[in-house]
Amino acid sequence: MKIKREEFNLTQEQLATLIGVKVEQIKKIENEEFKEEDKPPEFIEKIAKQLKCKFEDLIEFDKK
Fold it and tell me: Is the pLDDT of residue 11 over 80?
């Protein structure tokens, strides 16, 4: 997600503000502090929408 966020020239703080979450939540996602089998938090879907990509693409993007 970090790579995609940086493509839009956004800081973690800016993205958090755009979607209405705490910066800590953005950091957790970027540090992959959730298990893939867990249902991702709703705000990840908001992030994908803000970054104009699918949720799946957002998660897979950083693994490449």
Answer: yes
